[in-house]
Amino acid sequence: MDLAGFLVLLSLIVSFLLGLVVHFKAQGVSYRVFEVTVFGVVGWCLAMFLYRLVGPGPDLFWARALYFFPSFIPSAFVLFGLSFPDQPVNKWLITLIVSINLIVAFFCLVPGAVIVNVITPSIGEKIIVFGWAYTLYLIYLPSFFTISYFVLLKKYFTGSPRIKQQVLYVLLGLSVSSLIAIVSNLILPTLGVFEFNWLGQVSAFFWMGCVTYAIVKHRLMDIRLVIARAISHFLLIAVLVTIYTFGIFLISSLILPLNMNFNQLTVSVILTILVALSFQALRRWLEKVTDKIFFKGHYVSEKLLTDLGQIIASTLVLKTLTQKFFLELTQQMKLSWGALFLVKGQKVVWLNSKRQKTPEVSLSEVKELVETGKKLLILEELPENKIKEIMRKLNIGAYITLGADKKNLGILALGGKSSGDVYSKQDIEVIEILAPQLTVAIENAQAYEKIQRFSDTLRKEVDRATRKLQRANIRLKELSTLKDEFVSIASHQLRTPMTAIKSYLWLVMRKKGKALDSRNRRNLDRAYTSVERMIVLVKDMLTVSRIEGKRLDLDMVEIDLHELAKKVYQELKIKADEKDVRLVLESPKIKTVVKADQERIREVIQNLTDNAIKFTPKGGRARIFFRKTDNRIETSISDTGAGISKRDMPKLFQKFSRLEHSFSKIAETPGTGLGLYIAKQIVGLHKGSIRVKSKVGKGSIFTFSLPRGWARKNETKR
Questions:
Q1: Residue span of the structural domain in which 192 resides
Q2: Residue 657 and residue 675: Cα distance in Å, rounded?
Q3: What is the arithmetic mean of pLDDT over 207-220?
Q4: Which pLDDT score is estimated for 608?
Q5: Closest Cα to residue 90, out of 102, 100, 82?
Q6: Is the pLDDT of residue 220 over 70?
Q7: What's the pLDDT score for residue 299?
Q8: Whole-Å CA distances, 411 to 346, 370, 371, 402, 579
């Protein structure tokens, strides 16, 4: 085996190792196609090595294989460019590309099509005699390589910064190696020059180097850890092969003369390499099995994000939030520890779940970390600098800055992986998703702490006010204002976690895959209904706060009450049908145009209609109708429920009023006690009126009236 054969063999080994890495680690369509490309290079190198090694006869077979395997490389690279990173590709386009590839590959194996014969001269390189289909081969390879260049260039110009870096090195390696291969394996052989046809396989070294750099530096396919292990395994194989070859040489030449020629020794070495590689594949499989049993098991990103989202949405006390958050994060992600460094004025606050002792850290060090860590920084990836020294001092494996509205709150610091692995692409994506959510949670918790301090202050002021009656009235007004702000802030802050809980419940209830059993679905339905009630309560409390604080704006425009009621009717018709209540909207014989705030009046109609449906028994009827009196338009909603007693009438339009009459048992869920109060206040702001007529056992009619053509300037304050 000469130098060219040795270089081809080395290229074969490197390509095969990269192929194993991709096969066992990468996931997704684009990377499976990339796997075909890599093993196409492996087959190409193997064919060249054996073509140069064997004698006349078998060399014809390997000559055809020499052109068969490369036929899969350009088409696979086109499909890789189209699908990277995990993008759908038109099935008809895939069929067309694969069909062309299979036709060319078929001609490569047909005797007399691409390769007719191999001539072995006494001196010099072997000469390949090409057939009629070789022209098709000459057109196919450069054309598909050109297409793959354009596809990858498009990905480069339209992709994210990380995708651009990945594509750049893949494209660079492909360009150089394919150019050399086309010259040495297509152009020169066509001109009758075969002494350089091994350069194409050797040029794969440059391509492998570029791909490996993209893997290590820019997380192509997220297989950095596997690459690191593969390098160590390759070195182990190289040592074993060297020892084995040296041992055979000593045995055959000194101890037991076996008269082995160089080719027999080469075959023995190849068999040794194959055994060693098979051993590593078996070891990987055993590692994968033991990982599932022991410590290194993977986690599900969606489950971790869901669990942490529920913690963030359900906890407002910062210390409790931090303890629950890091306990869940470190357990599922297999981290040694996690903590927050929060900058508060001229001090650093340390919050975590495991380590109770605050590390010795200065404010300047934390501020330097904050300014540098706009994106997730990982200790192993940083060059030697001051930031890396600080991270080593604090035993930080990775960290990211938490900031909102151009204000940095601190950093989310994480220790190393307990398994000893490096941070994977999955870990990085999860942390980058969590950082903004945790920022909002910290702000909410800090606002809650302020509100608690406000509440303590209010209680002290009330106690002082009771001892000084003359100053009490003034002070009570101030406390009332602060109370309204408290309710407004609390209601506003509660809407986000409640909406998040509702969204996560909705996702779980409609998640594809294994169906939920009846018990779990019933529990989720109850939880979903409770969250909806909480959202309605928070919304109503916020509206009440704005009304009482005179901060409710009215957008006065001309609206048609009948058209507005029609939209409410369409929304609530399904609910009425589910309860077997007949909902009727009568068409008015009068014009129902008034000047009012459309959204607020719609809220009034929806509230009254929803109550009518809620408190009407099965088989009953709810009706919406209109009439004109003097210079007013009246909108009435009637029901055939149990009615309201006279003693309960005064409670109807009060805040948090609850009626004790038996008709309330008809409702599936209790109300907030704010709906009728809000409706009355909104109608009052429109200079209208609302009243109710009811008879026990017969039903009720709620009627509100608005002036026709009334318009006034919006006098409310923001």
A1: 3-222
A2: 10
A3: 61
A4: 92
A5: 82
A6: no
A7: 76
A8: 16, 6, 10, 5, 52
User: Are 94 and 150 contained in the same domain?
Assistant: yes
Burial zone of 293 (CB within 10 Å; 0-12 exposed, 13-18 middle, 19+ buried): exposed
| C-beta of residue 392 within 8 angstroms of C-beta of residue 413 | no
Greatest Cα-to-Cα distance within the chain, rounded to the nearest angstrom? 124
Co-location of 538 and 624 in the same domain? no
Q: What is the pLDDT of residues 274-321, one digit of tens each?
A: 555 555 555 555 555 555 544 455 677 888 888 888 888 887 788 888
Average pLDDT, rounded, for the chain:
76
Tokens of 586: 């009568």
d(CA 464, CA 469): 9
Contacts of residue 210, Cβ cutoff 8 Å, sequence gap at least 6: 169, 170, 172, 173, 174
Cα dist from 217 to 214, 229, 353, 374, whole Å: 5, 16, 32, 19
- 63, pLDDT greater than 60: yes
How far apart, in whole angstroms, are the C-alpha atoms of residue 360 and residue 356? 13
Instruction: Give the H or E element holding residue 378.
Output: strand 377-378
268-286: pLDDT as tens digits: 656 565 555 555 555 555 5
CB neighbour list of residue 712: distance below 8 Å, 6 or more residues apart: 556, 687
Q: Which has more pLDDT, 718 or 688? A: 688
Query: Is residue 642 within 8 Å of 659, Cβ to Cβ?
Result: no
Note whether residue 490 is domain-resident. Answer: yes
Q: In 10 A of CB 238, how many CB atoms?
A: 13
Cα 670 to Cα 665: distance, rounded to the nearest angstrom: 9
The residues facing 637 across adjacent strands are 624, 702
Q: Are 377 and 387 in contact (CB under 8 A)?
A: yes
User: What's the pTM value of the predicted model, to 2 decimals?
Assistant: 0.38
Non-local CB neighbours of 582 within 8 Å, separated by 6+ positions = 576, 620, 621, 622
310 and 504 Cβ atoms separated by less than 8 Å: yes
Pairing mode, if any, of strands 582-585 and 621-629?
Answer: parallel
Same domain flag for 500 and 606: no
Q: List phi, psi (to 5°) of 549.
A: -90, 5
Give the neighbor-by-neighbor strand order of the sheet with 621-629.
Answer: 582-585, 621-629, 632-639, 699-707, 689-695
């200079």: which residue's tokens? 687
Closest CA to 27 of 165, 226, 205, 174: 226
- Would 588 be classed as within a structural domain? yes
The span from the CA of 280 to the CA of 288, in Å, is 12
Beta strands in 397-503 (DSSP E): 398-404, 407-414
Chosen domain end from 504, 530, 548:
548
Together in a domain, 572 and 594: yes
Residues in the chain: 718
| 526, 548, 570 - which closes a domain | 548
Q: Is the pLDDT of residue 537 over 80?
A: no
CB 221 within 8 A of CB 22: yes
Neighbours of 544 (CB within 10 A): 22
